[in-house]
Specification:
Layout (H helix, E strand, L loop, with lengths): L14 H13 L3 E2 H9 L7 H13 L3 E4 L7 E4 L8 E4 L5 E3 L8 H9 L10 E4 L2 H8 L1
Parallel strand pairs: 4-6
Antiparallel strand pairs: 1-3, 2-3, 4-5
Helix pairs in contact: 1-2, 2-3
């Protein structure tokens, strides 16, 4: 497992942060901020969507979550363990999100090379964009 320097900077765990992290861990799949908001409001009715976004941005900055940007759709957030999220494929037509095999993620050596250049890697997300099978099928038929 890769150990990143960011591990020493665990943010202070407020109730909101703990709940957001719980949802991300439990679901284990990329979720939008709205989905997370809906889920934690059952236990914390007063929490705002704004707070959820702020919390997610903090987690991404700390390497505890990865953001998956979906053109024309809402960004999804996924829990990160050990500094890296698994790779995902995103369809540019329908927004479908498909997990890819972990072996396709950049190797530890690639990440170490950033450190050698004086950069501190706090985490990363690896997203491949393209057209999914279903959307391509529609084109050909
Ligand atoms: Zn598609």
């Amino acid at each position: 497992m890769q150990n990143f320097a960011m591990m020493r900077r665990i943010p202070r765990m407020t109730v909101q942060r703990r709940l957001v992290l719980e949802v991300l861990r439990r679901e284990g799949r990329p979720l939008s901020a709205k989905e997370i908001h809906r889920s934690i409001r059952q236990r914390l009715p007063k929490v705002s969507l704004e707070t959820v976004y702020r919390t997610l941005n903090l987690f991404v900055a700390q390497g505890m979550a990865a953001a998956i940007y979906i053109p024309g759709g809402s960004t999804r957030y996924v829990h990160v363990a050990g500094g890296s999220s698994r790779p995902y494929f995103v369809c540019l037509r329908c927004g479908a999100l498909e997990p890819l095999p972990r072996e396709l993620a950049p190797s530890a050596g690639v990440l170490t090379s950033f450190r050698e250049k004086g950069m501190e890697v706090t985490g990363y997300s690896y997203v491949v964009y393209g057209i999914c099978r279903r959307c391509r099928g529609g084109e050909e038929g």
